[in-house]
Amino acid sequence: MSETTDLQSEIQELLDNSHMDQAFELLNSRHPAEVGAVIDELEPEHAFPLFDLLDLKNQSRVLAYLSPSHQLSMVRRLDRHALARLFTEMNADDRADLYQELPEDMQETLMPALAKAEREDLLRLTSYPEGTVGAIMTSEYATVASHLTARQAIEKLRTQALDKETIYIAYVLDSDRNLVGTVSLSGLVVANGDDRVEDLMQRDPVTVNADEPQSVAAQKVADYDLLAVPILDDHNAMVGIVTHDDAMDVQEEEATEDFHKSANVGVMSGGVSQVTLRILYQKRVYWLVLLVFANVFSGAGIAMYEDVIVAHVGLVFFLPLLIASAGNTGAQSATLMVRAIATGDVVMKDWARMLAREISVGAALGITMAIAVAGIGLWRGGPEMAFVVASTMVIVVLAGSLIGMSLPFLLNRLNMDPATASAPIVTFIADVAGILIYFAIASAVLTLPTAAAG
Amino acid sequence: MSETTDLQSEIQELLDNSHMDQAFELLNSRHPAEVGAVIDELEPEHAFPLFDLLDLKNQSRVLAYLSPSHQLSMVRRLDRHALARLFTEMNADDRADLYQELPEDMQETLMPALAKAEREDLLRLTSYPEGTVGAIMTSEYATVASHLTARQAIEKLRTQALDKETIYIAYVLDSDRNLVGTVSLSGLVVANGDDRVEDLMQRDPVTVNADEPQSVAAQKVADYDLLAVPILDDHNAMVGIVTHDDAMDVQEEEATEDFHKSANVGVMSGGVSQVTLRILYQKRVYWLVLLVFANVFSGAGIAMYEDVIVAHVGLVFFLPLLIASAGNTGAQSATLMVRAIATGDVVMKDWARMLAREISVGAALGITMAIAVAGIGLWRGGPEMAFVVASTMVIVVLAGSLIGMSLPFLLNRLNMDPATASAPIVTFIADVAGILIYFAIASAVLTLPTAAAG
């Protein structure tokens, strides 16, 4: 981030010395992502002069790199005509995203100021629910007719270049806007100028439906190494594309959501450093309180064996160790499965094979950890204690790993998000199971001075 | 994955009926990623006939989508000349990866069969350690001279197209191979044919050093929405590019590694469904056993207060609940920070601000959870018990969240991987702290029949 700081101080110096021309030159020559990073770091009132120094095209591009709150601050000051000019200049997908951030009154003033084509495009793109492919696609893709020659197609793409997000892939549509093939600019450049698009194009391209989750489009782009994936509506008409850079953003966003879910933090729009404290509290408190009540079961499990504990208080020494071991092993298994399902490494039909593998690995881990704890048991409480803790360890570790491995599959089967099988939830289940197994074995093996516990 | 199954059964039917021409046609018309997925699902001996049906170009492309073990099975059967032909056809980066998978004797037979240029390229690319940018870059990038006109540059790119990974971005180098600018094919196509490259090119492009971690290249591609990022050596000479599709693979791989680290699973090359059971065991057992011994401290914490426990055995009821709460809150904080640091949302200098935020949120969470547990305490053990568990809850939750938040920063500061601050480790620290705090408060507040515990 030192680059950001450099650019920021350079700009500040030019502004302080009123070298406006040089400041203009510098800001407009840098990558919009860099300028966006500088502006995002500043309080809005200090960012305004910088933003206003950008030309219209760069303003429209820098906006896309700002956080929602900064986007809003920048455009809120504009009158409807300035706003409409900026909107017209923006990429279709960025424009749709910004439109949805605007307060309703601004949306209403803006709409009539836009040209009809842009208005319709905006309404179409904003009609898809958040999280779907439709909500992230752009309508600015290049098309060529199948009867054109390569030379004519290049000329056609040349005229489209400024309005389209990419001209490296052109789409060939029939009269119903059904996608019949794709042709790459590199294919056109390499081809003989008289070759026809219909002979050059790739038929049956990979496509995604606009109603599918956004992760599906990102995964296709990743799996097939695409520059962009074409998006179809329910009637198989082409309605947009998702480009590689947006796919990469989606992939990062989805990974972040899964990370947060792994620790039972709810889905937040915006990074942890930007969201309000209220949102952060809300996204975290729900499962924490739920787990407080869930853990009453762990307490109840212990309470059932209070007699055993009073008779052999040394048992409590091993309690955190044994339940942590079950929980840690279970968390490993759950994390491995959740991620493998998310990346497509493991699918539902692998269930039986994965279970067999987990039993082998879980047993091996359990035995290793039992050997480790047996030594401690011998030292703290003699051979009987060593036997109790070691046999408990094997069983709880195996149980923990099977629970951790199965839960994501089960959730997936029930059409729920496998990522809900988070470490804390698996740990909780492993805790309860671990406590019951431990004291059951202990009360069976150890002699009790009073009557056996119930 | 149903697409994979369809293609597989279609092919199988054609093979069974000896329609070899149609099978050839079908396999060679599908995307190499699809064919690769089919082959990867089959046992090697069943995959050979399919692989052999592919033409040389498709073989070279499909290979890149196979798992390392399948790659090796496919090429192991080839004699040195067939192997050299295949290697020559492959992309430079895929070729270098495969070369490193080969057993030493195959490497030695292959080398002399390759042309000098390929041999040198292979040695250069394989000289960078795994995990660095150099190890994932490709040397097949397109270059144009700055004095060319746009028309001449397009013609130049046309002749390079077949050998280069992309011609959409061309690099302009000076006589020392220093990068002076980049020009896009779309820029060249849109420009006037007589415009010169030096006037069209973007100067000062974003670059990455070949020795940096691979995630740096992936992050630059993501941040600047690049098709490819140019890679420089220590003398600032250009040595390769990392393309958007490889950057996306790196991003996914890095996220998977961080997921696994979050549950203390070591870095594995290959998915959880593919690695051997032995590797899986090795990657999991290390931290599990370490945490068994670490948790002796939790046990020791409890053992210090055995008198208190015997006098008030009801305290044990709340033990799992309180330490789980501290651990869960800490795991949330750690996960949020680890991911925020990985994505660049939070940097070192945000430390103080993030600490202040964490204190507010941690206190709010602690108070909420204290209210929840106070009710349970009142029900199980009266007002004194309610006071003990509620005040413990506030302190341990706040402590857990501060530990979870600070540890990733601390590790980063010490130039260690922040992702090492995994849920199990944070939970362990929170456990020990929680036990000590709980019994300290309990022994201070509750009356003990015997002398106070030590």
Task: Describe this structure as you would to a colleague.
The structure is a homodimer of 454-residue chains. By secondary structure, chain A is of the alpha/beta class. Chain A has 3 domains: 2-128, Alpha Horseshoe (MgtE N-terminal fold); 141-252, CBS-domain, CATH 3.10.580; 295-445, Tetracycline Repressor, domain 2 (Orthogonal Bundle). Helices cover 67% and strands 7% of the residues of chain A. In chain A, the strands form 2 sheets. Chain A has a 4-stranded mixed β-sheet. In chain A, helix 20 (315-343) crosses helix 21 (351-413). Chains A and B meet through helix 12, strand 2, helix 13, helix 15 and helix 16 of A and helix 12, strand 2, helix 13, helix 15 and helix 16 of B.
SSE diagram, text form:
The structure is a homodimer of 454-residue chains.
Chain A: H1 2-16, H2 20-29, H3 32-41, H4 44-53, H5 56-63, H6 68-76, H7 80-89, H8 92-101, H9 104-113, H10 116-125, H11 133-136, E1 141-143, H12 150-160, E2 166-173, E3 179-184, H13 185-190, H14 197-200, E4 202-203, E5 208-209, H15 214-224, E6 228-232, E7 238-243, H16 244-262, H17 277-294, H18 296-303, H19 306-311, H20 315-343, H21 351-413, H22 423-445
Parallel strand pairs in A: 1-2, 5-6
Antiparallel strand pairs in A: 2-3, 3-4, 6-7
Helix pairs in contact in A: 1-3, 3-5, 5-7, 7-9, 8-10, 15-16, 18-22, 20-21, 20-22, 21-22
Describe, in short, the structure shown:
Chain A is built from 22 helices and seven strands. By secondary structure, chain A is of the alpha/beta class. In chain A, the strands form two sheets. The first copy, chain A, has a four-stranded mixed beta sheet. In chain A, strands 5-6-7 form a three-stranded mixed beta sheet.
